[in-house]
Amino acid sequence: MKITGIQSQIVSLPFDMGGPPATFAGKAWTHLDILLVRVETDEGLVGWGEAFGHAGIQATRAALDGIVAPLVLGRSSGDIAALSRSVLHATHLLGRNGPFVFAFSGIETALWDLAGKRAGQPLARLLGGEVRERLPAYASLLAYHEPALVRRNVEAACAAGYRHIKLHEVTEEAVAAAAEVTRAFGAALMVDVNCAWSVPAALRMADAFAPHDLLWFEEPVWPPEDVHGLARVRARGVPIAAGENTAGLFGFKALIEAGAIDVAQPSVTKIGGIGEMLRVITLCEAHGVRPAPHSPYFGPGLLATMHVIAARVEDPLVEVLWLDMEANPLDPWVRAENGHVRLPTGPGLGCDPSLGVLDRYRVGSVVRTA
Ligand SMILES: [Mg+2]
């Protein structure tokens, strides 16, 4: 059960979002970059994980290859909780929320994949849950800005069978255009503004969006750690969602104790992996907060989220990015059909990524061995 090899690899998958590409850090966003983590043990087993990358993928990869992988190599793959404690303690002075925790998240997920493969059980069952083969999903649309484009994509997502739609728009005009369509289809609407506003501005926008009856209003306040500011927006009566930028269990404890959220969104590739996400879900259960994990992923991070949701979330809803991918390493499993995703039910995460797709779209790889 000893960890003998850790490989990081970046695959870059072209996509079409149904409009002009979004920009981030001055660059057009035309490819989805995924940081895959492959962990090998002396039993000959291989586990897969995914570490959060986005525009900072090279930083996460440097943290993984240079610091986190050497801390993990040679250790037992079986005692995931103790290994998490030890690695996160060793790296805590480098940040409790950032590339080092993201990097470890990928390894931790791969260790759960290994645990499931060793036991011959899908992760959902290993977590004590039922393996639900289909899970309801929501279409998470990127930012289009133009109300006409927003409308066109919301119509397409509703026509594809989604009954939950999330926007990344910041104007009342764009939200109103979407709301007209979702109302006609009987679909729920959520709006995510990625921490766009000060508290006074967020209060004004909460009032502006109020007629559209949002299922949730996501991360309205800058900075994300202003839990009391977020609680003031929630007091306006709109359900608040947050958590993708929250550091671990104690970050969620602060959000919940401040009365800031209705919906908690732990992100498995960012928070430290599956174990920390399970702790957050338990905390949510104790406080009547709905867990709705953040999962705009197309790799093992999405699979891990789906298994955790299947096993542990009473009211399941899986976030799926509204994109047309040139290739998907998890095909055919996670392509949404009629607003639902299919959970692969093999041992561990249920399926391995397609090696053919990885070979075709890989843009870099580093192997570390014990
Ligand atoms: Mg979000």
Automatic annotation (TrEMBL):
CDD domains, per database record:
MR_like
User: Is Lyase included in the keywords of this UniProt record?
Assistant: yes
Q: What Gene3D superfamilies does the entry give?
A: Enolase-like C-terminal domain (3.20.20.120), Enolase-like, N-terminal domain (3.30.390.10)
Q: Which domain of life is it from?
A: Bacteria
> One biological-process term from Gene Ontology?
amino acid catabolic process
Keyword terms, alphabetized: Lyase
A Pfam family that the UniProt record links to this protein: MR_MLE_C
Which GO MF terms are attached to this record? lyase activity; magnesium ion binding
Pinpoint the Mandelate racemase/muconate lactonizing enzyme C-terminal domain residues: 147-239
- Coiled-coil residue windows: none
Query: What PANTHER family does the annotation carry?
Result: D-GALACTONATE DEHYDRATASE (PTHR48080:SF2), D-GALACTONATE DEHYDRATASE-RELATED (PTHR48080)
User: What is the official name of this protein in its record?
Assistant: Mandelate racemase/muconate lactonizing enzyme C-terminal domain-containing protein
